[in-house]
Structures are given as C-alpha cells and as structure tokens.
Specification:
The protein is α/β, with parallel strands linked by helices and 305 residues long. The protein has helices spanning 43-61, 97-105, 114-125, 184-188, 190-197, 202-210, 214-238, 254-267, 287-297, and strands at residues 2-9, 13-21, 28-36, 66-71, 74-75, 82-84, 109-113, 133-139, 143-149, 152-154, 242-247, 277-280.
Length: 305
C-alpha cells in the first residue's frame, strides 16, 4: 500500500489531497482539505505554507511515498524553478519552488501545472476516464488546460502543451497577463466576465445572467463565444473527443454548458456533433490536488527531485 500527497497551489487556497493505492488497483482519495495561501506575503511565505500543510498532512497520513505540487503557471521542468505565475503577486521568476518544498518535506516532489493536474485527475478517475483524447479546461481567475492522450498527459516539446487559455482568439483584444494580446484568458476569464457585466465578480455575473440581466447575459454569451472558438481549434488540431470543463464558471451550469455545446457544434464542420462530448468535471475543487498526487505517483513525464 502506497500513499501520495498532492498540493494544489492557488491564489486564494492551497488544496490538499492524499491518495492511496494497492498494487494495480485504482487510486483512492483518503483525505482532502484546504488552507489559505496568503499569497500577498510573497514566495518565501507561500513556500512555508506549502511545507507546513505538507508536514501536518504527513504526520497524520504518512508515511508518504511522494509529493506532487500543482502550480498556477509555467516552470522549468528540469530545474523546478518558476518561469511565470501571471496571477500570483511577488517576484516568482527563478524561484526554486520544487526543490525547496522537497527539502522542507524531505520527500521526493514532482511539479505539475495546475490545469494539467486537473486534467490528469479527471482523465484518470473523473469525467474523462473513458476518453481517448481529452482536453481539460479550468475557468476561473485564469483559464488553463491540459491534454491527455491514451491515458497519459501530453506536454509537448516545451512542457506547456494544452495551455488552452493562451491561444489567440481576438487578435486586437486586450493584453493578457502573459504579455500576448487577445488570449482567450484575457477575454473570457472570470474577472473579464465580471467587468463586462458591471458586477464585482464572476459569481455575481452568473447569478445576474440567471435572472435575465441583459449586461450579464451578454458578458456570459461573449465568453462562451470565445471558448467555443478555442475548443473547436483544439478538436480539429489534436482530435479531442472529450472536453471536461471545471472551475468557477461551471457554477452557472446549463447557462454556460448548453450554449457552449451548441456554439462548438456550429464550428465543427469536419466532425460529427455526436463525436465530441463536453461535460462538467466530476471531482469538483479537489481535482487539482488529486491530479498533483497522481503526478507524484509517477503518472507524468516530468522530472522529480
């Protein structure tokens, strides 16, 4: 029997999961939790928060065989240093997060992008477990994504394949946090929807849209329009048969999913409408931490320390 810890670093919370696996049996989630990130205090403080919750969890559920760390951005898979955290404050570039967490916990640690962790979890034990080619999409503070092909995460030559939110969908659109202009994330992330709807956050926008507010309905419709372009692009390029949608926008339910399915279908002129399935994630907010734990287990071609 082996146990693996997953830590999912977010701007607001660090989510935690422990999975247990016996032989070739499917992994089982035996614990999940979350603590506040306190991201405003900077990289060193966040590292200490990760190590602290890791130690607390290990004391109760250990011994742990490995750790997976999901992070909200890009990193160097060889050195484990951060390249870009577009939605976390502080001087993160070059910060050796993987190695410092590994040293603090004294447990081998693997780092994975948080959206890829979501994809790994949903593709292994969640809504995409029967897919051959799955696109996982997370929609919230930012827009992330991951590709899972024949049961394995596909990272591409640069370790960033599946960065769904950073494809250009509006060439003359707003500048994204990554520096590009017109990324899907820039026009369809939660704060963009809220701003267009004239409300304080995305949840308020979805609630207002559900009540028929014209500005909120238009903001949601515009986000769906751009997401449909992005999904159709991925389907025709890599042949994805299953799209698993997660994140805050899924609280809107059919208000988003139904028009999204219809809009994607309109664009897939080369693929039959019954051949692509768009579904809501099955694992909820736990998916990132579960996927990180699976990455720690070794279900990912990323270097560990």
């Amino acid at each position: 029997m082996k146990r693996y810890l997953g830590l999912d670093l977010g701007g607001t919370n660090i989510k935690v999961a422990v999975i247990e696996q016996a032989g070739d049996d499917p992994p089982v989630v035996i614990h999940d939790d979350k603590v506040r990130t306190q991201a405003a205090h900077g990289p060193e403080h966040v590292r200490d928060r990760l190590v602290g919750v890791g130690r607390t969890t290990a004391a109760e559920y250990g011994p742990l065989d490995a750790v997976g760390l999901g992070v909200p951005g890009l990193f160097d898979p060889e050195g484990g240093t951060i390249e870009l955290f577009p939605n976390l404050p502080g001087p993160w570039k070059g910060f050796p997060l993987r190695d410092e967490v590994a040293d603090g916990l004294a447990i081998p640690t693997t780092m994975i992008n948080d959206a890829r962790a979501f994809t790994l979890a949903e593709g292994t034990i969640g809504a995409g477990r029967d897919a051959r080619v799955m696109l996982g999409v997370t929609l919230g503070t930012g827009i992330g994504g991951g590709l899972m092909i024949d049961g394995r995460i596909h990272e591409g030559s640069f370790g960033m394949a599946g960065e769904f939110g950073h494809q250009t969908v509006e060439p003359h659109g707003p500048v994204c946090g990554c520096g590009n202009r017109g990324c899907l994330e820039a026009v369809a992330k939660g704060s963009a929807i809220a701003m267009a709807a004239g409300v304080k956050n995305a949840e308020a926008a979805y609630a207002a849209a559900g009540e028929g507010d014209p500005a909120a309905l238009k903001a949601t419709h515009d986000a769906v329009f751009y997401m449909a372009i992005g999904i159709a692009n991925v389907v025709v390029i890599v042949g994805a048969d299953t799209i698993v949608m997660g994140g805050g926008i899924m609280s809107a339910g059919s208000l988003v999913l139904d028009p999204l399915r219809a809009a994607v279908d309109e664009r897939l002129t080369l693929v039959g409408s019954t051949e692509v399935t768009i579904v809501k994630a099955a694992l909820g907010g736990r998916a990132g931490a579960i996927g990180a734990a699976l990455a720690g287990k070794g279900q990912l071609p990323t270097r560990a320390r």
